[in-house]
Specification:
Number of strands: 17
Number of helices: 14
Structural class: alpha/beta
Distance between the termini: 55 Å
Shape: globular
Largest sheet: 7 strands, mixed
Radius of gyration: 23 Å
C-alpha cells in the first residue's frame, strides 16, 4: 500500500507528460528541458505533481517579478472578480484600467512620463514590438529598422525580423557591444566606442546602402542573446546618434523592466529617455498584458489603426498595478541591484574554480553564466588591442552540451534555470525580486553542485 501511494504521483505526472508529448506542437520549448508538472507554487517555489519542490529561477521567463501567487497579486485579482466588473472590455475606459495607467505613468522616466501616450495592444511582448515598429513607420513615413546582433524581440514576423536569428530581413543589423565575445576582439570602452562609430558610419555614409530608417530598436540588456548589459556610455551614444538624425529610439523593456536590472526601467542606468518603450511580462503581474509607451509627438494613429481583441484584460491590469506599486513602494529594484551584485561576486569566485565557466555577467537579478570548452585554446586578443595578462586570452568556444548538462543537474537538485545565448551555452538566472538571501544562497549552492557534477575541478599541481 505504501509503495502504491508513493508511486501514484509519479505515475500521474508521467501520464500528463506523455499526453503532452503526443498532443502538443513540436514547437514547445521549456517542456522539453524541464519535464515537470507544476501543481502548486508560491514565491520562488514550485511543487510538481510528483511531490518534489523546485526553486524557480526561470520565473516565467522574467514575468513573475513577485514570484508565484504573491498575496498582493491574488488580492488584486480577487477584488476585481468579487466586484462584478466586466473582465473583457476591448479598449473602453474602466476604473481598473485608469488605476493601472496611473501607476504605470508614475514609474516611467520623467522625461517620458510628462509627454507620454500608452497603446494597449495584444497580450504578449511580441505584439507590443509589432505595434512599436508599425508606430514609428507610420509617424516617420520611413520603412527601415535598425536592430542589433544577438537581439530577441519576439516570434511574430516583424519582431522576428528585428531579432538576431532572422534570415530574410528588411532590417539593418548593427554590432551590440560585449566584453567576453566582442565583435571587434577588444571589449571594454574601446570596443563599445567602435560599435558606436560603426553605427554612425552606417547612417552617415551616403554609400552604405542604408537609407534613413524609421527607428532603432534595442534591449538595454540582451536577455535571450546571452545576458549582455549595454554599456551606459554606448547607450547614451545611441540616443545622441538617433536624436541628431530624427530617428525614434525604441527600448525593448519586456524582460528588463519593473526592477529586474536594479532600476525600475533598465534605460535609467544610463539616463537615456527613449522615444518608445515596449513593455510586457512583469507589468501584468503574471497575467497577459503588453503596452507601448511613446512620446506624444509620435501619436499619429488613426482610430482603429492598431487594435487587439484582448487589449482590455482587466485581471492583468489589476494584477499589474498591484505589482508595479509593490515593487516601487518596497524598493525592490534597489534590492535587486544589491543582491544581484553579491550573487555575481560569488559566481565569479565559482568561475575561478571551474575553467568551464567562461564568463559571469548581468545586471541586478538578470544574471548569465556562460559555459565554455575548458580544453579548447582561447581565441587570442587582437595584437594591437593593448591587452596583457589574462585579458589577452580571448574567449573559449561555447559549450552548449555542457550547459544543457548543467541545466539537467540543476533540475535533479530542485533548481529550475533557463539556457540562452547565441549557442544556448549561457545558464540564466531570473529569480523573482522577492527572493530572500537564504534562498539566493540555496540557488547558488545547487548551481555550484550541478557544475561540479558535470565538470569536476581541475587537479592543481
Amino acid at each position: 500500500m505504501t509503495a502504491e501511494r508513493t508511486e501514484a504521483p509519479y505515475a500521474a505526472q508521467d501520464g500528463i507528460l506523455r499526453r503532452q508529448s503526443t498532443r502538443e506542437s513540436a514547437a514547445r520549448t521549456y517542456a522539453r528541458a524541464l519535464p515537470i508538472v507544476p501543481v502548486r507554487a508560491r514565491g520562488l517555489t514550485i511543487e510538481g505533481a510528483d511531490g518534489r519542490r523546485y526553486l524557480d529561477c526561470l520565473s516565467g521567463a522574467g514575468t513573475l517579478a513577485l514570484g508565484h501567487n504573491h498575496p498582493v497579486v491574488l488580492e488584486a485579482i480577487r477584488d476585481v472578480l468579487d466586484s462584478g466588473a466586466p473582465l473583457h472590455v476591448l479598449d473602453l475606459a474602466t476604473p481598473v484600467k485608469d488605476a493601472f495607467t496611473t501607476e504605470l505613468f508614475q514609474t516611467l522616466p520623467p522625461g517620458l512620463a510628462d509627454h507620454a501616450r500608452v497603446q494597449f495592444c495584444g497580450p504578449a511582448g511580441t505584439d507590443a514590438v509589432e505595434a512599436a515598429l508599425k508606430l514609428v513607420r507610420t509617424a516617420t513615413g520611413r520603412n527601415g529598422i535598425l536592430a542589433f546582433a544577438g537581439a530577441y524581440h519576439g516570434m511574430t514576423a516583424g519582431a522576428l525580423e528585428a531579432s538576431g536569428g532572422a534570415t530574410d530581413v528588411r532590417v539593418t543589423r548593427l554590432p551590440y557591444p560585449q566584453d567576453y565575445r566582442c565583435p571587434f576582439g577588444i571589449g571594454g570602452e574601446y570596443g563599445a566606442e567602435l560599435a558606436a562609430r560603426w553605427t554612425r558610419s552606417v547612417l552617415d555614409d551616403a554609400k552604405s546602402g542604408v537609407p534613413r530608417p524609421a527607428g532603432m530598436i534595442l534591449e538595454p540588456v540582451q536577455g535571450e542573446g546571452g545576458v549582455h548589459p549595454a554599456p551606459d556610455a554606448w547607450l547614451r551614444r545611441m540616443r545622441q546618434i538617433t536624436e541628431a538624425r530624427s530617428i525614434p529610439l525604441i527600448a525593448d523593456e519586456v524582460q528588463t523592466g519593473v526592477g529586474r536590472t536594479g532600476r525600475f526601467w533598465a534605460v535609467e542606468h544610463s539616463g537615456v529617455v527613449p522615444d518608445v518603450m515596449v513593455l510586457s511580462k512583469a507589468i501584468g503581474g503574471s497575467l497577459p498584458l503588453a503596452v507601448v509607451v511613446y512620446h506624444e509627438d509620435l501619436d499619429v494613429w488613426r482610430p482603429g489603426a492598431h487594435a487587439g481583441t484582448f487589449r482590455g484584460n482587466q485581471l492583468a491590469m489589476a494584477a499589474g498595478a498591484a505589482t508595479l506599486a509593490y515593487v516601487r513602494e518596497n524598493r525592490l529594484a534597489e534590492r535587486a541591484a544589491a543582491l544581484g551584485a553579491r550573487m555575481m561576486t560569488q559566481l565569479r569566485a565559482l568561475a575561478a574554480e571551474f575553467p568551464c565557466i567562461g564568463d559571469v555577467r548581468g545586471r541586478g537579478l538578470m544574471i548569465g553564466v556562460e559555459l565554455v570548452d575548458p580544453e579548447a585554446t582561447p581565441e587570442p586578443a587582437l595584437p594591437d588591442a593593448g591587452l596583457t595578462g589574462p585579458e589577452a586570452a580571448g574567449p573559449r568556444p561555447a559549450a552548449p552540451a555542457l550547459a544543457a548538462a548543467v541545466q539537467r543537474e540543476c533540475l535533479r537538485r530542485g533548481l529550475i534555470v533557463e539556457l540562452g545565448g547565441r549557442h544556448a551555452s549561457v545558464v540564466r538566472l531570473l529569480p523573482p525580486l522577492t527572493i530572500s538571501d537564504e534562498q539566493a544562497a540555496a540557488v547558488l549552492d545547487r548551481l555550484a553542485d550541478a557544475v561540479a557534477a558535470v565538470a569536476p575541478r581541475p587537479v592543481r599541481p
